[in-house]
């Protein structure tokens, strides 16, 4: 791991090298510098003090879709149109309007009422798992729980969840720098667009008692144009499937790697939320929050000019030894855990599906403890990358 000092006095590391850093190398880099430059117009803030302070700073906005696509090198096409339209990549009134259309459905009190249904889905999936043979937990369990639940929330067919989940995982590569595999990403973007567009058209012709029918029929000031609505639903499918899948896989892996932790949860289920919080701190499925700098700001005493892309490395911040004692230790009883949890973002763009993700992981873990108490890990997974969406490798287990 090497950096050079640029003309602006900021340590420089090519984004390709930064994206391949191990967690230990990231820890070393954070101790050396509060900020590292990855590209001529892109820096990454590494320390908790700066990341927390800047997470909702008025001079930093969510990177607009067109700017994000330009930086990533994403050409015109369905993927680019999706990124330029999805609420995550918008700000101000556009963001408020698009997010507002879904706010009621994803309100925390509404989602808490689905806890029983989430548990029923998890119980069914775990009952389906093979017994007496090795299998990939990521594919057969961690992927199914969020995909089937987001299908239920939106009003999609459960039997379609495996199909759209596969396309979601490929499309999500558009959020992982450096960008690659465009043809595969674009094909999945087209497939998901056609799938959602057909579902919207079907609900317009024959409404059902589901969220998409409600959105199609909405004639209030919250309503969205058809094209706009399709892209929002695509984004919710992506957000509701990909990150929870990786996060849940790593939570279970962490507990199975240290059987004393698994046994402690077996004895006291009230520790399940703490286990999830701690695992998401150590191995978050999202490495940071991309922001666009409207005017000059200061990061760790270093001046960053306006017009820069500023990545707020929540992955690094949640491991910051100046904020958290023994940050590499998985501690079910930790008292200095960062609140609110940075893995779900901050400010106006804090994750819309945070409560659903928590319910899925909590009930999924409880169902696994009940339905497969003797599960053993044969091959541990790894979480790949430090930027954007991080990817979990398969975990091989046996029940």
Explain the overall architecture.
With 399 residues, the protein is of the alpha+beta class. It contains 18 helices and 14 strands. The strands form 5 sheets. It has a 5-stranded mixed β-sheet with strand order 3-4-10-7-5. β12 and β13 form a beta hairpin. α11 crosses α14 (226-257) and α14 (226-257) crosses α16. The mean pLDDT is 93. Keywords: Heme, Iron, Metal-binding, Monooxygenase, Oxidoreductase.
Quick overview:
The chain is of the alpha+beta class and 399 residues long. Helices cover 50% and strands 11% of the residues.
Shape: globular
Helix fraction bin: 40-55%
Low-confidence stretches: none
User: How many distinct folded domains?
Assistant: 1
Assigned CATH architecture: Orthogonal Bundle
Q: In angstroms, what separates the terminal alpha carbons? A: 40 Å
Query: Reading side by side through the largest sheet, how are the strands ordered?
Result: 3-4-10-7-5
Return the structural class.
alpha+beta
For the largest beta-sheet, the strand count, sense and barrel status come to:
5 strands, mixed
Average pLDDT number: 93
What is the β-strand count? 14
CATH uppermost class:
Mainly Alpha
Strand content: 5-15%
Radius of gyration: 21 Å
Organism: Sulfitobacter sediminilitoris
Pfam families: p450 (PF00067)
GO molecular function, one term: iron ion binding
Keywords: Heme, Iron, Metal-binding, Monooxygenase, Oxidoreductase
């Amino acid at each position: 791991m090497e950096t050079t000092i640029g003309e602006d006095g900021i340590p420089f590391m090519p984004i390709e090298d930064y994206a391949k850093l191990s967690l230990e190398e990231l820890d070393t880099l954070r101790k050396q510098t509060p900020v590292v430059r990855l590209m001529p117009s892109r820096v990454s803030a590494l320390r908790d003090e700066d990341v927390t302070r800047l997470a909702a700073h008025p001079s930093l906005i969510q990177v607009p879709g067109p700017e994000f696509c330009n930086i990533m090198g994403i050409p015109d096409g369905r993927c680019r149109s999706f990124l330029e339209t999805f609420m995550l990549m918008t700000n101000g009134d556009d963001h408020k309007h698009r997010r507002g259309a879904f706010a009621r459905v994803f309100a925390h009190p509404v989602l808490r009422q689905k806890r029983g249904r989430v548990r029923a889905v998890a119980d069914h999936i775990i009952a389906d798992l093979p017994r007496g043979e090795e299998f990939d937990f990521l594919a057969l369990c961690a992927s199914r729980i969020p995909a089937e639940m987001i299908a239920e929330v939106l009003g999609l067919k459960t039997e379609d969840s495996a199909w759209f989940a596969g396309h979601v995982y490929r499309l999500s590569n558009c959020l992982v720098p450096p960008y690659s595999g465009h043809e595969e990403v674009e094909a999945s973007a087209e497939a998901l667009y056609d799938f959602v567009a057909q579902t919207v058209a079907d609900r317009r012709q024959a409404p059902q008692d589901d969220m998409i029918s409600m959105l199609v029929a909405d004639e209030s000031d919250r309503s969205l144009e058809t094209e706009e609505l399709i892209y929002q639903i695509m984004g919710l499918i992506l957000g509701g499937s990909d990150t929870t899948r990786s996060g849940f896989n790593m939570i279970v892996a962490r507990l199975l790697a240290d059987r004393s932790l698994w046994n402690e949860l077996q004895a006291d289920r009230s520790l399940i939320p703490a286990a999830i919080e701690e695992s998401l701190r150590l191995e978050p499925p999202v490495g940071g929050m991309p922001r666009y700098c409207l005017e000059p700001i200061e990061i760790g005493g270093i001046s960053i000019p306006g017009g820069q892309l500023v990545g707020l490395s929540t992955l690094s911040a949640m491991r910051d030894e100046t904020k958290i004692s023994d940050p590499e230790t998985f501690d079910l009883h930790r008292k200095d855990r960062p609140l609110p949890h940075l893995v779900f973002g901050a400010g106006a763009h804090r994750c819309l599906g945070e409560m659903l993700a928590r319910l899925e992981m909590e009930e999924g873990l409880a169902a696994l403890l009940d339905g497969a108490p003797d599960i053993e890990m044969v091959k541990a997974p790894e979480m790949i990358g430090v930027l954007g969406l991080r990817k979990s490798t398969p975990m091989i287990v046996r029940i």
